[in-house]
Each structure stands twice: as structure tokens, then as C-alpha cells.
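Section handout, structural biology tutorial.
Before the tutorial, make sure you can parse a SMILES string by hand: atoms, branches in parentheses, ring closures as digits. In the record below the ligand is fe (ii) ion, and the chain has 296 residues. In the tutorial you will relate the predicted C-alpha cells back to the input. Do not try to memorize them.
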Amino acid sequence: MTPQLHEHLTQRLEAAVHRHLAAAQDWLPHEYVPWAQGRDYAELPWDEAQSRLPKPVRAAVALNLLTEDNLPGYHGELARIYGASEPWRAWLDRWTAEEGRHAIVLRDYLLVTRAVDPVALEADRMATVSGGFRAPDKDMLRTIAYVSLQELATRVSHRSTGRLSEDPGLDRLLTRVAMDENLHMVLYRDLTQAALEVDPAAMLRALVDEVAGFTMPGTGIPQFARRAAAVARAGIYDLRVHRDDVVLPLLRYWRVFELTDLSPEAEAARDELSAVLAELDRRVARLLSRRELVVA
Ligand SMILES: [Fe+2]
Ligand SMILES: [Fe+2]
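Predicted structure of the complex:
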């Protein structure tokens, strides 16, 4: 990244953090937990019949929580990529404080309402956080592209988990968390926009890499593939949702296919992005036709 682009991003972040702090509503995790429902686990051991959540929702909410739990891993990688200068450090610390709240409120809610097995949840948290999080291929531009996608994906996933939960308390809590994820997405979407203005070739290249290779940050969670498949089958987050509610709205926002006066390198990157989207369309079509077969 050129020093000029770094300076431009730094100035945009400064403004974006001010806007974020003005827009972010403070909220208290303990106000979202029905403490009166709580019982001592020594008195009344956990049993699956106690959970009111439909099974796919249980899988989704545990996956979402374990992903939030791995915050130290993300913080470490982001600290490496952002470096020691301000306002990058201050933003990372603020973001970390907000994300930490998500794991706190979700765990408290799930334990008090006996929605998931507390022993398995803790074993999975230990395994997940011990596994850490590594993203050695990510530089600054790939990171802002990835996090734009990931924060929006997380917002969508939290919202549809809540909607399908048949649990008004969980829905209310996940709506609150999703509002935070939305503001995180807005900040990273703006940084990506800023990079597109100054160095479209480099930013489009980063977008190609991140759209093509996108995976959720929770891939290190025990049995990630099985859990993600259950979440997809329930329609909470699948490839179609990923394309229609995450990838395409962001690319539309950035007007990627309306940019003019591009260099040959930028044009080549945008052509590659078109090819990546065409492949995504084919995969979604295959998925939908398989689903129709199952329904028929
Ligand atoms: Fe979060
Ligand atoms: Fe977030």
C-alpha cells in the first residue's frame, strides 16, 4: 500500500470513528437476560429437553457465540495488520470492547435459559480460543474488504437466527447485537470506499481475493462444517443469502461496476470479479435446484 493511500485511509477512519461514536447506542447486556428463569445447575442438571430452541437455531446461536468468543484471536491479527499508530489502535480497542459484549450477553442468555449444553459449550469455547485465529494472507486492503463482508454476514446471521428462534427474548437480544454489527460494517464499508477512490486497482484486487475466498471466521470451531450445514439447511445463512444479502448489496453500494477511467490493472481485476460472481451464481443455482429436488 502506498503511503498516500495509508494517509487517506487514516483520515477516513478518523472521521468514521467520530460518526460511529455518535451513532452507537450504549446498552447493557444484563438487561437482555431473564435472570429470574435461572436455576443452579448442581440442583437441576442440564437436559436437552429443557431447551426451547429449534435444533438449527441452537446450532446457529452456538456457532455465533463461539465466533464471538474468539475475539482475542481477531484482535491479535488486526493489531498486527493495523500497526501501532492512531487512530487505528483506538478504533481496534473500541471495536474489541463492543464485540466482547456480544459474547457476554449471548452466553448469559443461553446459560440462564438452558438453551444449549453448558459443558459442551465450554469445551467448544476452550477448543476454539486455544486454536486462535490466523490470517497470514491478509494485508490492510484485504482486511477491510474481508471485514466489510464478515460484519454484514454476521448481522444477517444474528438477525435471521433471532427471527427463526421462536424466542422473543433471544430475538430482541440478537436484534440489538445485529445493530452493532451493522455499524461495524458501515465503518469498514466506508474505508473500502475510500480505498476505491484513491487506488481502485489495488482495492479491486483485494475485493476479488476476498469475495472469491470468503469463509466465516469460525472455521476453527469444532465441527464447523456440520454446524454450518445445519444453519444453511435452516435457511439462516446459506450461499444464496450470502450472495443476495451480503456480497451483491456491498458491491452495489461501492458501484464497482459503474467505476470509470480505470487503469488496465483495475479493469482486469474487475473482470475477474465478474467471473467470481458468475461462479457464485452457478453454485447458488446448483444449490437451489438440489433443494427443489428435495422438496419435489
Ligand atoms: Fe459481534
Ligand atoms: Fe462486529
